[in-house]
Structure formats: structure tokens, C-alpha cells
């Protein structure tokens, strides 16, 4: 019988990566909300040329977080 409590190397990596990405994602969502409601001004740290880079960074983090979640879902769900 297969032991469901065994976590392999891929599971540990996915869990660590997922936790880090969730943490970073929450911070970035908070920054987005503050910028959206004009509580902070993003132009202080980024000019118009850097905004697409920040958008790509946010999308990359989101996709990595989704990938880690899918790995954990199919591995242990």
C-alpha cells in the first residue's frame, strides 16, 4: 500500500517554491492595491519604461505560483 505521507524531492521543492511564491504574491497584490487606490505613487520607483518589466515580473510570479499549486494538487490531492 502506498504511503500518502511520503513527500518526495519534487514535492518538497514544490512546497518550498509554492510558499515563497504565495508570500511574494501577497506582497505584490498589496502593492498593486495600494497603487490602484492611489495610496502610493509607483512613479517614485519606476518610470514609464520600467512598468512593462514590472508587469512581466508579476505575471511570471503568478505563473510559477500556479505551476507549484498544480504540482502539489496532482501529487498530493
Shape: elongated
Radius of gyration from CA coordinates:
17 Å
What count of domains describes the coordinates? 1
Number of helices: 2
Spatial separation of the terminal alpha carbons: 17 Å
Strand content: under 5%
* SS-derived structural category: mainly alpha
- What are the secondary-structure elements, in order, as H or E? HH
Mean pLDDT: 77
- Say how many strands there are: 0
Give the biggest sheet.
Answer: none
Percent helix among the residues?
over 70%
Structure description:
With 77 residues, this protein is mainly α. It has one domain. Helices cover 70% and strands 0% of the residues. The protein has two helices and no strands. α1 runs antiparallel to α2.
SSE topology:
Blueprint: H1 9-36, H2 51-76
